[in-house]
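Subject: Sanity check before I submit

Could someone independently write out the structure tokens for this chain? I want to compare against mine line by line before I put it in a report. The sequence has 114 residues.
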Amino acid sequence: MPRSVNAVASRARRKKVLKLAKGNFGSRSNVWTVAKNTVEKGLQYAYRDRKTKKRNFRSLWIQRINAGARMHGLTYSEFIGKLAKKEIDLNRKVLADLAMNHPKAFEAVIKAVK
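---
Independent answer below. Compare away.
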């Protein structure tokens, strides 16, 4: 009996990987073994950096809130502590946006806290 290899599925799998490798330089985009390694590594970075992106944005928001709070004589930790004590539920993303783009509204929040 002849050997069965299911070339259709193999070809489809390779095409899928080569499509993901599109845009890489040189043989990384069209040689199967090189492209496979490139795509695997790229997907690892993508998974890892989806977590890192959240971390980086939170850090950026905290820096912006701190800068805005210090303009009004508070530190970041004092400001967040007083927000919690007054039970004002604004997340860091919103507070950072207010501090950057709507300084009057941020000043109103600071006054409500003081």
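---
OP: Matches mine. For the report I'm noting this point. The radius of gyration is 25 Å.
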